[in-house]
Design goal:
107 residues; alpha+beta
Length: 107
């Protein structure tokens, strides 16, 4: 999670780590972020971890609302870094990553 925060902040974005303490909405992604006016919801997973059905539902809702929704593990960190580095085509790069992500994680 520290690496994801560093990547977002390195792209001059804001990353808020959500905390589920009984007051939040189940399934909300780990990070809610804004980079250059783009809303990102990022669910972090270790290794081959998969999102729960509630997490998939939240990601689908963010995607349907026009946001960028991603599941990120250690393998995807370099791709996220590269996508955010392309300032002129950042949104296009992130949306291409979303397409791959949806196919991989089934949301």
């Amino acid at each position: 999670k520290d690496k994801v925060r560093a990547i977002i902040e390195g792209a001059h974005g804001v990353a808020t780590l959500t905390v589920q303490n009984g007051m939040g909405t189940n399934g909300t992604s780990d990070f809610l972020c804004c980079v250059d006016g783009l809303f990102l919801a990022i669910e972090t997973k270790a290794g081959s971890g998969k999102p729960t059905e509630l997490q998939k539902h939240y990601l689908s809702r963010v995607h349907a609302a026009g946001g960028i929704a991603l599941v990120v593990n250690e393998e995807l960190l370099p791709q996220l870094t590269v996508a955010l580095a392309h300032t002129g085509t950042r949104e296009e790069s992130l949306r291409a990553l979303v397409t791959l992500n949806r196919a991989t994680y089934g949301w």
